[in-house]
Design brief:
The complex is a heterodimer.
Chain A lengths: L2 H25 L6 H29 L3 E12 L2 E10 L2 H22 L6 H20 L3 H19 L6 H32 L4 H5 L16 H18 L8 H4 L5 H11 L3 H8 L1 H6 L1 H24 L3 H22 L5 H23 L3 H12 L9 H5 L2 H12 L4 H32 L25
Antiparallel strand pairs in A: 1-2
Helix pairs in contact in A: 1-2, 1-4, 2-3, 3-4, 3-10, 3-15, 4-5, 5-6, 6-8, 8-11, 8-13, 10-15, 13-14, 13-18, 14-15
Chain B lengths: L8 H16 L23 H12 L7 H10 L4 H12 L6 E2 L3 E2 H10 L7 H10 L12 H19 L13 H7 L12 H20 L15 H9 L3 H17 L15 H9 L7 H15 L4 H12 L6 H10 L2 H12 L12 H25 L8 H8 L8 H15 L3 H5 L3 H13 L2 H26 L11 E6 L2 H13 L3 E6 L7 E4 L7 E3 L8 E7 L3 H24 L4 H10 L4 H9 L1 H16 L4 E4 L18 H15 L8 E8 L22 H12 L1 H9 L9 E8 L4 E4 L10 H23 L11 H13 L15 E5 L7 E2 L4 E5 L7 H29 L12 E4 L3 E4 L5 E2 L4 H4 L8 E5 L2 H10 L1 H8 L4 E5 L6 E5 L2 E5 L8 E2 L2 H5 L9 E3 L3
Parallel strand pairs in B: 3-4, 3-9, 5-7, 9-10, 12-14, 12-18, 18-19, 22-23
Antiparallel strand pairs in B: 1-2, 5-6, 7-8, 10-11, 13-23, 15-16, 16-17, 19-20, 20-21
The chains are: A mainly alpha, B alpha/beta.
Chain lengths: 470, 1015
Amino acid sequence: MEPATIFGLIVLLAPILLMAVLGTSSLMERPLSERAASRLVRLLTTVGLLASLGVLAMMLVEGTRHVTVLSVEWIGVPYYHFLVKFVFDRLSVPLVILTFILCGTIGLFATRYMHRERGYNRFFTLLAVFMLGMVLACLAGTVETLFLGWELVGLSSALLVAFFQERPAPVRNGLHVWVVYRVSDAALLLAAVVMHHMLGQGDFGRLLGNDPAHPWPEGSTLATPTQALVVGLLLVLAAAGKSALVPFSGWLPRAMEGPTPSSAVFYGALSVHLGAVLLLRMSSLLVAAPALAGVVVALGLITAVQAYLAGSVQTDIKSALSFASLAQVGLIVAEIGLGGWIPFLWYVALAHLLGHACVRTLQFIRAPTLLQDYRHLEDAIGGRLQRPRIRWVQLVPGRFRVWLYLFALERGYLDTILMVFVVTPFVRLFRWLDRIERRWADFLAGRRLGSPPLVSTKTERTTEPARTYR
Amino acid sequence: MKNLTATDRPSRLLRHAIDQAAHLLPAQGPITVFIHHNTLHAFEDMPFDQAVRHGAMVFGCEPYLPERAYRDAVTTGRIRPDDLLAVLEDDLGLKAIDGIARLVSRIDLRLAMLQYPLRTGPTEELLWFVAMTDALRRVREVASVAAKQKLIAETRRWVMRDLRGRDGANGEAARPAWVAELLEPFDESEIESWDANTWEAVTLELLWGICRDGVRGVPEFTPPPPIPVRHRDLLLQVTGTDIDLQVNAILIRFCAAFVDQGIAHWPLPNRENGFFQAFASLYRKPGSPERWLRRLRPELARLQDSRTSALASIVESLAVLGVPDTEWDGFVSETLLALRGWGGIIQQIETRGDRVAHPIPAGSLTELLAVRLLLERFALAQTAEESLGYTGPLASLRDELQRRLPPPTRTSEEQRAFVVFQLAQVLGWPPDQLHRRTAGQWSELVREIDEFNGIERRRVLHAAYEKRFREQALDALALHARQPAPASPRFQVITCLDDREESFRRHLEEATPDCETFGAAGFFGVAMYFRGVADAHFVALCPITIRPRHYVEEQAEEPREETRRRRKARWALGTAFHLVDVGTRGILTGALLTAGLGVLASIPLIVRTLFPRLAARIGARLVRLIHSLPRTRLRLERNEPDIGPQSAKIGYTLDEMTDIAEQQLRDIGLTRNFARLVFVIGHGSRSMNNPHESAYDCGACGGSVGGANARALAQILNDPRVRAGLAQRRLVIPGDTQFLGGLHNTCNEYVKVFNEDRLPDTHRDDFEYAHHAIEWALCRNSHERARRFESAPLTLTFAGAREHVNNRAEDLAQVRPELGHATNAVCVIGRRERTRGLFLDRRAFLVSYDPTQPDAGQTILARILAAAVPVCAGINLEYYFGRVDPTGWGCGTKLPHNITSLVGVMDGAASDLRTGLPWQMVEIHEPVRLLFVVETTPETMMGLMARDEGIARLVHKGWVQLAVLDPHSSRIELFEHGHFFPYRPLADRLPAAGSSVDWYRGWRDYLEFAEIGER
């Protein structure tokens, strides 16, 4: 085996091992001690990081820009191939290195931050699941592998939002995040089905034309413009859910219910960028279908503007940072879209993504220090900190200004719109179908009408506990 | 509707209701200045036990620790059975020996209920438990062998004598049907040869059957829960939909925007017009697709256009909701309590606008109420329509809901029977005895058990928990052999009375027996607005009860040019950092910064996390670059008669300074025997990642760092003119005595001494000696503190411990930089000789006071108590409540906290503003009410309480405990039920150890008080 391949395998094995050990010990109700867990996290992320640096070094030395590791065909029948495959290239290597650095740093941070907290082990197990998901998603060479990583990231994110499971709000918000993720998962799954339908397999190399001779981002897709557009739109939908692009932006501030370190690494830095990573991976589709590129640019810009507006009126530091983060994610997505015409912008987007992830992580973990930081700044400046002058607000006509403020404060009504125009009709439709089905079943079974519906129409109790009177 | 005038009847009633409600809201101001106060301040005129129950009901929180915690304390011996008995005796008095149902005395019944855990649960769970466990096979393990044997033997006799079905003397006729049913599973024909296990099972079956039979038909004694007054509560109970969710979602956002002090870059428009107007102008704009908000719009427009005032709008809303004015008090309170954190902060900022940068107009709380009621009206209308199909007027919604209210769940027969069943086993009540109880007696028994419910049991357990600690503390003080101060001390140290300085002082005296220490409220009598040379604004440094009048400024003693240059550099650097911070939140600036320089952020990220010390050192160097001020001094003196922050009006007059000096020295009893060097050391705490940092600072300095006060006092006392003035008042400070100010950072254990360079050469050696001792004591103190941190190994060396606490202070990931006042429990006001050489485990506030001075009892003690009692009691009670219900009274765990509007923290992205102490601060606290021990006579103390209403209330109503220590003997009298009673120590000697380290080494938990030192 070549050294690069060995290093590549280690990159994969380190997070798998971490998840296995932490997860199994928790499942067997013999959680590791805090010290052992923190050592394990430290050891395995360091190993993973060194191995990914090793891959980078080997690629630089050997001059290859596309290394395939562990290409296994799980199912192979005519017209259907289920392929597990991992690719190290210009896109995945920096992302994997970033993942290890941030997860490692935040893991270390959390070993002290989470000290003596109930759920210490749960936190680190979820962190390991997340890290594994990120590594798989970044390295995925086929859509099936990508889906696996994508799911792990989504699952661990939603569970970490609901980390404080004894309070209702985190659970409610965790559920919200989960539902949005499921929508985006469904889109990804559909994209996979379409890809299989077109090519008989989910290999990105085949779809995008990447191989050792044409490493990312050089390949050109085999798909026709229409095919590229269809697959591309589905992938854009998937990316929009994962990266909180319009109209899904509402979940991002809700994700701040978890402990600070998880907010930092997930929603500030890594999982919020995963959609952008997917779009980068699909970059050659953008060239093939300019309409798709146009959609991506528009989506990115709208998100950026909307998030910037919402961000400038947020009054709590974590929401302010999350919208600031989203504004940049929007720009990154727009850059990727523009890359359809100027491919160099993909590198810009990648650099933007990496730098942005580092900045936000730092800002998030410093968020509880905000008061001290402000005091130091005030002392240095010698007076109260002034709000920055937002000049464009002055340009907005007066009456419109208040409306715009309300629009920003209500975060563009995105959640409400989804609730009123999508969720409620959806639920109503399915309850109606349920009723119809029961009638039919009753009719066919010769029973009397009116047996109780399967799903209670009464809304579930998802409320704060009513104050008790003693 | 016409606008109300201030004198209208509804207006008056409503103002009264709002005032009442405002009183209930949390009194915590902006978090940057955290002031400890009694969480239940609103109920301070009730007796403690009554107040905590009332508070628990009003706020839905816990009054005491959970019963499990107390029972654990019984298991570990922290509470002894004797304590329980003594508390019950005291509690019940003559009622103790009343017989209950002719089965047991009241006190025995209650004792059993306290000592043995009583399982209860939903009826289904109990039935499962009875059916699936061996509850009907084996007598409970906690029952004594004697009780168990008695139970079985009596049953056996009874069954054999009276209940046998087979051709016994009684025949089938006398045997009730249920007995046959019960005995069916057992082979009755073999009854003579049943073994012990069978008899045990038969006993329990009979017992269970009789208990269920007995409680049948006993009436309910606990009154049903009151019917809620708010529509929301009723609607929630009936439909399961909580309208507070949608109302709060809007109000949280809006309140935060309204009070925001600078997080949002775009401030709320029309904020200057007040809460109500700002809300109306904003939410009358179209946008939201939600129906209830769309319907709210025209209403807001109407209110705004008709210039309806907030008060009038409230009256209108109450009328629409059908709330008669007799119910206003309760309804308004409940409504405002639904988002009490935000209501509280609005009320605080409204009344103390001087504590924030952007104050809000008076009346904002009323306006908040007006907005809330409007929102509730529209949310209620929609929810009632959607989930109940109710479209009638809101005024009759409550009646409609009450009709649909499910009947309150009552205690089931099984639940009641199971309690009796368990008690019968531990108390050894045989089934036949129970069987003979009349219906009246069953009723009596059940009522007695119901009366001693969970909260009552916890009250008694808590009293025992406190009693045990009180006795240990009083024993220690009574038995401790006095250690007089050295005749001619080498140096003296005055610190804050803070419990965290107890160990510092002890170690200092252990290190250098020829030093003497004093404790005083940490503002050292210098109440002032202070501005440091690098500070942006003046800060009040004194207890919250005092509003300072004087201004003091720190000034650089260097050439003007140099000062200006530094200030410029500092300004430039600060502005640059601020711009970068702001820039990362913009679109284009953000893109440039993150794409261009973003990766550089990984350097501080990694260094900060992996190498916190290195990061701190680099940071400190950076700070020194801009802050480094070789020499500064305090500007303390003014000539003008007027006082103010302007340059000429800063400072005190000479007379005022002399007054401060005299008062402070007399208070602590330092009037003779001055050493050549006297340190005055204030304290503060600096840490990272800690929104609650101010809660660790000096309470007597209003939640700020107390270094400046210490420094000011030292500077005053060094002034020869002040000394001359003091000499005239017969308080002579020797010419060779020098005072030095200092600051003790209680987090990283570092003492900074101010203006040490001004010390004359003659005192250089004394300084070196004292400095060495202080450093030594700091190491030891770090070591003693480190034993309480689970992440610090018990094997740490002294130097290692100092390094450890240092790391904690600099660590961005550390949520317990220090433990604050977590160990506070006692406050001793008296001479140091009464506590010197006593290991008080950092649990005591120590206030120096010399009762032998002339006039001590009247003026001086009154002054000391007036400052110390509210401050210490406030700290103690805040910790009490924070510990007994960490998420109810406290603000829960720090981990999801999110700084909001720069005034407080929320859980996650949108919650009520969380007030109180975080779990990480109270985790190890033992919630006991503070025990004051004052070195004085009972008569003096009674006299003082008669004059000081505030202290009298705290003592008489039981918010603090009080004892007096006789100045001339070791006699202690304890204040109980309004009088002092002599206290007889339980122990005859104290444990002793050679040094503090010998006593605490290897232990993480609380330790007994002990004598320290070679004997």
